[in-house]
Design a protein that fits this description.
The protein is of the alpha/beta class. The chain contains 16 helices and nine strands.
């Protein structure tokens, strides 16, 4: 503090600062005195309390009450601990609740849909009136499964055939409502004759009370399954021509032939194709990739053209892995070949690949989705089977360079293994595949 004894203050500011310094000093001294008094008072009161409490001449009522005992905190229960954890982690709790709630809702909706009975419409006398044309290879397990399920749900099923053997194959099912429909797509006169017969079935004048009605055309184009992977340079022109004729030209011609009838009946068109491998566009699968993408373009164009004039439901089924029983049949055949010729394991590189297939989704899922599309509950693109949606998303999101690198290395190793001479493959390299077949066959026949 400046010394101002005997001197006058130069300004009002100096006077105020001097008074503020004096106030601070006085306040500090007063606080020290108050703290000292409080400490002395506390010691004095504690001494008096102890002396009075220990005295024997005072009654118990006059003595001060003892201090309360210390409270020991008990461990919180599970409910309280959970409540405290939730209050501290609200974001994590909200995410977990949303995830579990969404999963529970999807499971509940799926089970509810599965419990709903799906039956085709009938006339008042119980007669079947809805007709479905199922265009697929009659010998394929998927075609047989679909036609039997549709017939069981109350549909009249017609399957186009072009040979006597296929017609007998359908008649062997011994089902009154599954009929072969002879249709030679290479003969325009045969196609016109068949369409005229179908128009007669759907003519209301022939059955005025309960006329038949075409509700859907289902196409199952044959999926190309070459015995081995090939490079584009190794695929001949005849192979391309045969592939386009079987897998593209046949379904395109079939749709063109039935399109006037479909437009008049307001029927739906369902395309069922396997898309797991073409979704990634892997190398050494040029034939399957070209056919799949050509089918995509055709369906997209057809959907846009028909949307301009009519509301026709054109559904695209992208099929993944389905458990149709074909893998089990292939395994039994491999077991039989195993006992005939052990060297097949070195000349058939795809056999072990087929044995390691993951079991697909049950066919019931496909049956329910097909029915929902026929009756108009589902439209657009439908994913059925294990891996169908995942492969489609990966093919769209992942860069093609990564996909090609991942799949190209594996395919290149397979090609090198195929071109390797037989004398370079020893028994230790060839036996694991057949040992796996023996293990599976032993578990199956045990």
């Amino acid at each position: 503090m400046p010394d101002h004894d005997g001197e006058s203050f130069g300004s009002l500011e100096d006077l105020l600062s001097y008074l503020y310094a004096i106030e601070t000093i006085v306040e500090g001294e007063v606080n020290k005195i108050a703290d000292s008094i409080d400490a002395v008072t506390d010691r004095l009161s504690a001494s008096l309390r102890s002396a009075i409490g220990d005295s024997s001449w005072l009654p118990a009522a006059a003595k001060p009450s003892p201090p309360p005992p210390a409270v020991i905190a008990r461990p919180a229960g599970y409910f309280q601990a959970s409540k405290d954890w939730i209050s501290r982690h609200r974001a994590v709790t909200a995410a977990v609740v949303c995830f579990l709630g969404t999963g529970a809702f999807l499971i509940w909706r799926q089970r509810r849909q599965n419990r709903v009975k799906r039956r085709a419409r009938r006339g008042k006398n119980g007669q079947k009136t809805d007709v479905v044309i199922l265009a697929g290879p009659p010998s394929a397990p998927l075609t047989r499964s679909l036609c039997l399920d549709l017939e069981r749900r109350g549909f009249i099923v017609y399957i186009p055939v072009n040979s006597l053997w296929e017609e007998r194959l359908i008649q062997a099912e011994s089902k009154a409502d599954i009929h072969p429909l002879y249709l030679d797509l290479t003969s325009p006169s045969s196609v016109s004759s068949t369409i005229r017969k179908l128009n007669g079935l759907f003519d209301p004048s022939d059955a005025p009370k309960y006329p038949l009605r075409l509700v859907s055309l289902i196409l199952l184009p044959q999926t190309p399954s070459p015995p081995e992977s090939k490079r584009i340079a190794d695929i001949s022109a005849d192979t391309w021509s045969d592939a386009f004729s079987i897998h593209l030209l046949s379904p395109f011609t079939l749709v063109r032939a039935f399109l006037p009838l479909i437009l008049s009946q307001k029927s739906s068109i369902l395309f069922l194709t396997h898309t797991n491998t073409p979704s990634l566009s892997p190398p050494l699968h040029g034939e399957a990739n070209v056919i799949a993408h050509a089918m995509d373009g055709y369906i997209s164009t057809l959907r846009k053209e028909l949307s301009l004039s009519s509301d026709i439901n054109i559904a695209r089924f992208k099929l993944g892995a389905l458990d149709d029983g074909s893998d089990r049949d292939a395994l039994k055949m491999a077991v039989a070949l195993r006992h005939d010729d052990r060297t097949h394991s070195t000349t058939s590189p795809n056999s072990t690949t087929e044995q390691r297939k993951v079991r697909g989704s049950p066919l019931r899922e496909l049956h329910l989705e097909v029915f929902d599309c026929i009756v108009g509950k589902t439209r657009g693109t439908v994913y059925v089977g294990r891996g169908s949606r995942t492969y489609d998303i990966l093919g769209k999101v992942m860069p093609q360079g990564i996909v090609g690198w991942m799949l190209g290395l594996k395919a290149q190793r397979e090609v090198q293994r195929e071109t390797r001479p037989d004398n370079m493959v020893d028994d230790s390299q060839a036996s694991p595949g057949w040992e796996r077949v023996d293990q599976i066959s032993g578990e199956e026949y045990a």
